[in-house]
Amino acid sequence: MSTQQEHQLSLSPFNHYSNRVLLKTLLHHANDDGAVGLVGQRVLVGGWVKSSKEVKKPSLPLIMDNNNNDGFDETRNKDVSCVEILQSRIPLVRSIFHVLGGKGYVPRKKLEHSQHPLKAIIPQPSTVYLLLTDGSCVSSLQVVVDSSVAQPSNLLPTGTCILVEGQLVKPSSEGKHSIELKADKVLHIGTVDIDNYRLSRKRIPLDMLRDYSHFRPRTTTVATVMRIRNVLSFATHSFFNDHAFIDVQVPAITSTDSEGFSNLFKVTTLDRKAEKEKLSTVYETEGVSLEVVKAAAKEKSNQVENLKRSESNREALAAAIHDLRKTNELASHLEAREKKTIEASLKDDKVDSSEDFFSCQTYLTVSGRLHLASYACALGNVYSFGPRFQAHKTDSAKHAAEMWMVEAEMAFAQLKDSMNCANDFLKYLCKRVLENCSEDLKFIAKRIDNACIDRLQQIVSVSPEMLSYNEAIDVLRKVEDKKFETNIEWGIDLTTEHLSYLADVVYKKPVMIYNYPKEVRPFYVRLNDDGRTVAAYDLIVPKVGTIISGSQNEERLNIISSRIRELGLAREKYEWYLDLRRNGTVKHSGFTLKFDIMVLFTTGLSNVRDVIPFPRSYGKANN
Amino acid sequence: MSTQQEHQLSLSPFNHYSNRVLLKTLLHHANDDGAVGLVGQRVLVGGWVKSSKEVKKPSLPLIMDNNNNDGFDETRNKDVSCVEILQSRIPLVRSIFHVLGGKGYVPRKKLEHSQHPLKAIIPQPSTVYLLLTDGSCVSSLQVVVDSSVAQPSNLLPTGTCILVEGQLVKPSSEGKHSIELKADKVLHIGTVDIDNYRLSRKRIPLDMLRDYSHFRPRTTTVATVMRIRNVLSFATHSFFNDHAFIDVQVPAITSTDSEGFSNLFKVTTLDRKAEKEKLSTVYETEGVSLEVVKAAAKEKSNQVENLKRSESNREALAAAIHDLRKTNELASHLEAREKKTIEASLKDDKVDSSEDFFSCQTYLTVSGRLHLASYACALGNVYSFGPRFQAHKTDSAKHAAEMWMVEAEMAFAQLKDSMNCANDFLKYLCKRVLENCSEDLKFIAKRIDNACIDRLQQIVSVSPEMLSYNEAIDVLRKVEDKKFETNIEWGIDLTTEHLSYLADVVYKKPVMIYNYPKEVRPFYVRLNDDGRTVAAYDLIVPKVGTIISGSQNEERLNIISSRIRELGLAREKYEWYLDLRRNGTVKHSGFTLKFDIMVLFTTGLSNVRDVIPFPRSYGKANN
Question: What DSSP state is assigned to residue B556?
Answer without folding.
Answer: -
